[in-house]
Amino acid sequence: MAAIIIKKLLVLVSLIVIATSCNPKKKDKENFIGVVTSATPEASIAGEQIFLKGGNAIDVAVAVSFALGVTEPAMSGLGGGTQVLLSIKNQPPVSINGTTLSPSNTPTQIKDTLSYHRRSTIPSTVKVLDYIWKTYGSGKVSWEELLKPAIELAEKGFPVGKFRAKVYRQYENRLLQSDFNTSFFLLNGKNIPQDGDIIKQPQLAKTLRRLAKFGAHDFYNGEIAQKIVNDMKKNGGWIALEDLQNFPEPKEIEPLSINYKGYKVYSQPPPCGGWVTLLALNLLEQTLSDNEISNEDIIRSLYLAHNDRDKNPITDLIDYDSIAKNKLSKAYAKDLLFENTFIKEEKEYGKPLISLSSMLMVM
């Protein structure tokens, strides 16, 4: 059971939830409005179900996240990390830091390829979802109710659509050759699912049921935690029981922000790459001579921002304030525009050696 938990690494839940706190049972459009969107239709429906029970946007987000762990196994799961950028009405936005950490006994000199269990950091997702539910949830929906849609999806299964079938084909060889938990995503333990097939995950359902009954505490201090540790010991992983028990509580920190064309834009601080998005907006603002934004402008800004992340990353993930402030200054964006190699080549030779359209092809 623990193996299916551990393989989902450093995943950020991708969702947007907009909902009011009014009574959703009333049919008057002026009284309520809710929009739920996520990476899978099943997870979005799970969020809708919670909203119709009277849950607020946070309740919906938690239910969607657990449902994504079932229906989007390539990108989401209990063994990942979750960061939250949260905006509450009449309050400044906050970032809830759900950074995952390396196990305490991780060797300082690593000579192997970090295959399978050794790729795992200590998961934060369950603890972060528990925190935001307890802190910002409506109080009208129980923890068990939030996990119920995910449990049903894992037990009863869901159809594999065209996109998910494409992902399975892409990783077919890895799935078929793996000795570990990938067998749980195969039909009859030996075939990848095809478009229209129903995939069930009974082991994951058992884990979710226990999590629903005993709470997030069990993942870090109870039976689930012990099974994770046993699985790690059996397969050469480094996560120990003390790592799970001592994993820090989520912290609320100030997000990064810039002013873009009269708007205040917020994004996640390190270790997330939110500063890259904000830098791209600064570059875009410097580039524009009028209100028209061309594809070339967007491509240039994204290329320069990601290129800066590659060559000059923020490596201090704790004391990053000064370096982030510098990178998000208008002056820094201006310097990047005029000192970048492609800009110099364009001035010297009359055109860039690599066109901006070509950049888009390799991004």
Short structural summary:
This protein has helices at residues 2-6, 41-52, 57-71, 125-136, 143-156, 162-170, 172-177, 202-214, 217-221, 223-234, 241-245, 274-287, 295-311, 321-327, 330-339, 341-349, 356-362, and strands spanning 15-19, 34-38, 84-86, 94-97, 158-159, 198-199, 251-253, 256-260, 263-267.
Assign the structural class, choosing from mainly alpha, mainly beta, alpha/beta, alpha+beta, or little secondary structure.
mainly alpha
Number of domains: 2
Rg estimate, integer Å = 23 Å
Mean pLDDT: 84
Order of helices and strands: HEEHHEEHHEHHEHHHHEEEHHHHHH
Shape: globular
Largest sheet: 3 strands, antiparallel
N/C terminus separation: 38 Å
Strand content: 5-15%
Q: Strands of the largest sheet, in order across it?
A: 3-4-7
Give a count of the beta strands, DSSP E runs of length 2 or more: 9
Return residue spans where pLDDT drops below 50 for at least 5 consecutive residues.
1-29, 349-363
Helix content: 40-55%
Number of DSSP helices? 17
Jot down its keywords.
disordered N terminus; Serum Albumin, Chain A, Domain 1; three-stranded antiparallel beta sheet; 363 residues; disordered C terminus; mainly alpha; single chain
Q: Would you spell out the secondary-structure blueprint of this structure?
A:
Blueprint: H1 2-6, E1 15-19, E2 34-38, H2 41-52, H3 57-71, E3 84-86, E4 94-97, H4 125-136, H5 143-156, E5 158-159, H6 162-170, H7 172-177, E6 198-199, H8 202-214, H9 217-221, H10 223-234, H11 241-245, E7 251-253, E8 256-260, E9 263-267, H12 274-287, H13 295-311, H14 321-327, H15 330-339, H16 341-349, H17 356-362
Antiparallel strand pairs: 1-2, 3-4, 4-7, 5-6, 8-9
